[in-house]
Amino acid sequence: MARRLLGVVGMVALVLVGGCKSPYVNATVKNETGAQVTLVEVDYPSASFGRDVLAAGATYPYRFKIIGSGAKKVSWTDGERKQHSSAGPALHEGQQGQLEITLTAAGAQWSEQLSQ
């Protein structure tokens, strides 16, 4: 019994020391359009996130885990109520790192530093 308990304690210690780390993406959406935007939505494989309003010059951080693979897309409405949409590069399950989406008057710019 003591040997079994020692084995369980040892396994728990290995997990704690080795660390269980789930891959995730730190995303930021920056509004550099020069005006407030509304209905900001980022779609990625199996889910989405967004804000009702993003002030001019504001940044919205969001952290997510990729489940599945597929394209990503951002959509928003500008101050003149014109809808915009931009497709980004594909995401793949298990990727982690940084994703930056900058909304501009000319469209969206995508910048990512992701690894498997």
What does this structure look like?
The protein has 116 residues and is mostly beta strands. The protein has a single domain, classed as Immunoglobulin-like (Sandwich). The chain is 15% helix and 56% strand. It has one helix and eight strands; from the N terminus they run H-E-E-E-E-E-E-E-E. The chain has one helix at residues 2-18, and strands at residues 25-32, 37-44, 47-54, 59-64, 70-77, 83-91, 96-104, 107-115. The chain has a four-stranded mixed β-sheet, with no helix packed on it. The protein has a four-stranded antiparallel β-sheet with strand order 3-2-5-6, with no helix packed on it. A hairpin with a 2-residue loop joins strand 2 (37-44) and strand 3. The protein is elongated, with a radius of gyration of 20 Å. The relative contact order is 0.22. The mean pLDDT is 88.
